[in-house]
Design brief:
The complex is a heterodimer of chains A (369) and B (366). Helix content of chain A is 49%, strand content 15%. By secondary structure, chain A is α+β, with helices and mostly antiparallel strands. In chain B, strand 8 (253-254) and strand 9 (257-258) form a beta hairpin. Classes of the chains: A alpha+beta (369), B alpha+beta (366). The A-B interface holds A 252, 255-257, 261-262, 264, 267-268, 270-272, 274-276, 278-280, 282-283, 286, 299-300, 303, 306-307, 353, 355-357, 359-361, 363-369 and B 246, 249-250, 257-258, 260-263, 265-267, 269-271, 273-274, 277-279, 281-282, 284-285, 303-304, 306-307, 310, 352, 354-356, 358-359, 362-366.
Chain lengths: 369, 366
């Protein structure tokens, strides 16, 4: 691994200043895409991909180490993560020739992919989705609506989950279909969030026609097809755990340097967070050790997600309360932004209520509701 | 005491054999009958654990007849014995007294006392939970006279000797006191934990032999180990409590279905699981800290104890809650664990005390 990271550092020492000079502080979508293009050309953004698809075929720990080094250099955020980590592996595994040809273009950002999964009526209960794909000759005719589509506004393509057999049990009547976002009948609108941001889109389908050849994987097997991700995706929560521990340590360090000591109640609250963050970090490291020694994490993923979500929300809460009046008058914009944004921590990527159901049902074996 | 000498796989095997042994030697029925006997000791289980399985000598170097292992291995033993609520003096004799003697640095004392502790033939009780502050000491020619009282002396009635932490004119000292020395008054307390009797031990000019020199720094380390040891017990008890709650949630039916199907119960169980897994990570990490790295030992012991002392009681209480009325009966096992948990919560600093120490360390308090 040392050689790998040494190579990375050499590349970064050259590439990062070039990118910064070119874009001069601009961190717009185009600027970030250019960075990804460069990173993919160097086989860094695509390091987890198999060699035959332009990657390095690296395992979880190596990929995490690369991301760590990138973060330590302050490298810009990769904009096309969903394509790189979720869609591309699925195309590699299940795609036909044309679909697999998208893979290198995903790396270079010539194609930007999103995933059409959640719907207004199908969030936690994703399998109940109702967007319909009816076969008419050699085309699917698609009607319905998707919501919370990450990258939706920028996407050139979508990996869509649609119902193709309404009579089958709900998990078994879904197909995965790839399509161009320019397909007539596809309309994209941004979703404005409570914090003013708009990272997600709604996508409406009105008689959108897509070739049957765009089926991804077997017909009616879409549910299984989309459960494919690269192994190191599981490690994602473990990384989040480590970052939250670091965030809390930094927060406490900053608070300890303030001239005015915080009240004993706030001091106690912060020390509670410290304890929980330290313990969360230990769980994260143990999960990574398990992965590094070839094991498969089991319940760790759910437990860490559950604990991380609630703790990170609590931290944003205490930062907001420490900001006091400044937090509600815009004088301390980051406190308010952090507080509002944190509402999604217990909702996105699996609500805490669902996570607790999963632990109860699948880990503890409790009977279903 | 060394750092971990075993691999994770070896410790897993060790855990397995302890669990196996204790499930046969110390089932609930046995625990209750030992409690009712009033002896405060399950002799057969102590012999099996301490002597046959070598658990009493885990933290004792091989040269003194022990296993030459460390906290990582002892944490497993503490966890499993707490899981079984085995009525044995493991904590006070094989952990606290054993470590106190070694931390004193007194090699003569090690050679004299550790071998008897190593095979479980001798039981010592540690009298120093409140630090050194309650007992004053006066010197006479060769020996010291101890004055004052020590509370919460675990398994005092079983001890052939006491390890007493006391104040001297030149700092904190550690003293060995013979169990039959003059001037000792042992008043059994009405301990909450039925599996581990405690006593108020009063010394009225009792003769003690000082071992080692200034025990101040050693006491700090001992307290750190005490926090880790009680956390390991809290983990073992918590895991068993969670299992009992989950089992009940699967089998108890009301309104036409097992109560575990209802989200309120299910989520409570899931939260228990998350806390147990967190405790496991914390105890595992703290038990592996290099015992020579006193700063890390201190910080990690505060973190692990702060966590376990806060959430183990919650788990015990939640287990009773899941059981409804039956959880409130003497006959149900839950309260036996609750009593152990509440006691371990308090020994060597509860969550609030540990957080207070952390706040100071982190510079959050003036």
């Amino acid at each position: 691994m040392d050689d790998l990271l040494a190579e990375l550092r050499v590349w970064l020492d050259d590439a990062l200043p070039k990118w910064k000079a070119k874009w001069n502080g601009d961190t717009s979508w185009d600027a970030l895409c250019d960075w990804q293009r460069m990173s993919a050309a160097g086989k860094w953004a695509t390091a987890a991909w198999p060699v035959e698809f332009g990657g390095r075929g690296l395992g979880t720990m190596d990929v995490l180490a690369i991301e760590d080094v990138m973060a330590s250099y302050g490298a810009p955020q990769i904009p096309g993560m969903i394509g790189l980590k979720n869609v591309a592996p699925t195309l590699m595994k299940f795609g036909n020739e044309e679909q697999r040809a998208s893979v290198p273009r995903i790396g270079s950002t010539d194609e930007v992919w999103c995933q059409g999964f959640s719907e207004p009526g199908a969030g936690s209960d994703l399998a109940s989705l109702r967007t319909r794909a009816v076969i008419d000759g050699d085309e699917f005719v698609i009607n319905g609506q998707k919501i919370w589509t990450s990258n939706g506004m920028h996407a050139t393509h979508m990996q869509l989950l649609a119902r193709t057999d309404p009579d089958a049990p709900k998990h078994k009547g879904i197909s995965a279909i790839t399509l161009s976002m320019k397909t007539p009948g596809v309309e994209v609108r941004p979703i404005k969030q409570i914090n003013g941001g708009a990272e997600f889109a709604e996508v409406f389908f009105t008689d959108a026609r897509v070739p049957v050849a765009n089926l991804l994987g077997p017909l009616h097997e879409g549910w299984n097809v989309t459960m494919t991700t690269l192994g190191h995706e599981r490690a994602g929560v473990a990384v989040f755990a480590g970052r939250l521990e670091q965030r809390i340590r930094s927060l406490i360090e900053d608070v300890s340097k303030q001239e005015q000591k915080v009240s004993p109640i706030v001091a106690d609250e912060l020390s509670e967070f410290y304890v929980e963050a330290r313990v969360l970090g230990m769980m994260g490291r143990q999960m990574l050790n398990k992965i590094a020694s070839g094991g498969t994490p089991g319940s760790e993923q759910s437990v860490i997600k559950m604990v991380w979500s609630e703790l990170s929300q609590q931290v944003d809460g205490v930062v907001m309360s420490m900001a006091g009046v400044d937090g509600v008058t815009g004088e301390d914009p980051t406190a308010a932004m952090g507080y509002l944004s944190a509402r999604s921590a217990t909702i996105a990527a699996g609500t805490s209520d669902i996570v607790k159901n999963i632990i109860g049902d699948r880990v503890l074996g409790l009977p279903r509701d | 005491m060394k750092n971990a000498t075993t691999t994770e796989a070896e410790r897993a095997e060790f855990r397995s054999s302890l669990r196996d042994y204790l499930s046969k030697a110390s089932p609930e029925s046995r625990v209750r009958s030992v409690i009712d006997s009033g002896t405060g000791l399950d002799e057969a289980a102590w012999k099996g654990l301490a002597t046959d399985l070598g658990v009493a000598g885990l933290l004792i170097p091989e040269e003194f007849g022990g296993q030459g292992m460390g906290m990582a291995e002892m944490a497993v033993a503490l966890e499993e014995s707490a899981r079984a609520l085995a009525v044995v003096p493991l904590l006070t004799s094989s952990v606290l007294s054993t470590l106190a003697i070694q931390l004193s640095g007194d090699q003569e004392a090690c050679a004299k006392y550790l071998p008897g502790l190593a095979d479980g033939s001798e039981i010592f009780a540690f009298a120093g939970l409140d630090g050194a502050l309650t007992t004053t000491v006066a010197r006479n020619e060769t020996f010291w006279g101890l004055y004052g009282s020590k509370t919460a002396v675990l398994n005092a009635s079983l001890a052939s000797r006491f390890l007493v932490v006391a104040n001297t004119p030149d700092g904190t000292g550690l003293f060995v006191v013979e169990g039959d020395a003059g001037g000792i008054v042992i008043r059994p307390q009405d301990a909450l934990d039925l599996t581990r009797p405690t006593a108020l031990v009063t010394f009225e000019g009792t003769e003690g032999t000082r071992i080692g020199g200034d025990f101040t720094d050693a006491l700090k380390s001992l307290q750190s180990f005490g926090r880790i040891a009680t956390s390991a017990e809290l983990l073992g008890a918590s895991e068993r409590l969670m299992e009992v709650a989950v089992e009940y949630a699967k089998t108890r039916e009301q309104f036409g279905k097992p109560i575990g199907a209802f989200q309120a119960i299910k989520h409570r169980c899931s939260e228990m699981f998350a806390h147990v897994e967190s405790m496991r990570a914390a105890v595992g990490s703290a038990a592996l800290v290099d015992p020579e790295d006193t700063a890390a030992l201190h910080e990690q012991s505060l973190v692990v104890k702060a966590y376990c002392a806060r959430f183990a009681p919650w788990i015990a209480e939640a287990t009773i809650q899941v059981h409804g009325g039956i959880g409130f009966t003497w006959e149900h096992v839950a309260h036996l664990y609750l009593r152990r948990v509440k006691t371990d919560e308090v020994l060597f600093g509860d969550a609030l005390a540990c957080r207070g120490a952390l706040q100071e360390m982190l510079g959050l308090t003036a």
